Amino acid sequence: MNDVAGQIHHAAARGYTSKAEVYAQGRPDYPPEIVDWLQKQLGVGAGQTAVDLGAGTGKFTRYLAATGARIIAVEPVKQMREQLAKRLPGIEVLEGTATAIPLPDNSADALTCAQSFHWFATKATLAEFHRVLKPWGKLALVWNRRDESVPWVAQLRDIIAPYQGDTPRFTSKTLSEVFPCDGFGPLHANRFPHPGHTGAPEDVIVNRFRSTSFIAALPPDEEARVVAAIRDLIASTPELAGKDSVTVPYDTVVYWTNRTG
Predict the structure, then answer these.
(1) Domains observed in the chain
(2) Is the pTM of this model over 0.85?
(3) pLDDT tens digits along 153-205
(4) Over the chain, what HEC string results?
């Protein structure tokens, strides 16, 4: 595949190329209950093939691997694929994009996009998903969402918001603009309580926001100003200041459907 980085959003191409290791370290995991959900709701298990598209560094891929299915991770950014291969050496990793998945027609029992569908939420993408999925194969779109009803979480959002530009983010419109879609059934939703992202503030707050695509893509001096503002917020927030360990609150939402015929 030629110039795959040129086929993805500029913020993802620059940010994830330069900050792949920070992404691997700074992003939260998913609720452990997701493995049981994948097995029972999506039917993913031994003897089946599941594709994790936009797999990044493998944060969600390892939950798929726990189902016993054959897992194929597809990721356009070389540095992210390298991090995934390092962390999950038994997983097949391929270079590809949402509109050019390097797999045959009717080859996947399930296809997942974790923390990624907002980058490529188009009808053309869903047509490619339809091509790769087997008849009645399952599609799952997964996001961890920060709880911005917590004041300091909302303040963190406000620090980075001026830098977002045209970078896609998951909103209510992400799905409503492409579903319903011919070739797929109704879209269902499941929500899971999340234990939160717990660790040193430098890891679960500073590095988490440094791994945001449009922050990771900033020139070093601008990134440094954002990081300084985040550290100032930590130092001035009683729930965070001076703590060796903090918890960033999240929940997890999964939208799923199946290919019809």
Answers:
(1) 4-146+170-196+249-258 (3.40.50.150)
(2) yes
(3) 999 999 999 999 988 889 889 999 999 999 999 999 999 999 999 999 999 99
(4) CCCHHHHCCHHHHHHHHHCHHHHHHHCCCCCCCHHHHHHHCCCCCCCCEEEEECCCCCCCHHHHHCCCCEEEEECCCHHHHHHHHHHCCCCEEECCECCECCCCCCCEEEEEEECCHHHCCCHHHHHHHHHHEEEEEEEEEEEEEECCCCHHHHHHHHHHHHHCCCCCCCCHHHHHCCCCCCCECCCEEEEEECCCEEECHHHHHHHHHHCCHHHHCCCHHHHHHHHHHHHHHHHHCCCCCCCCCEEECEEEEEEEEEECC
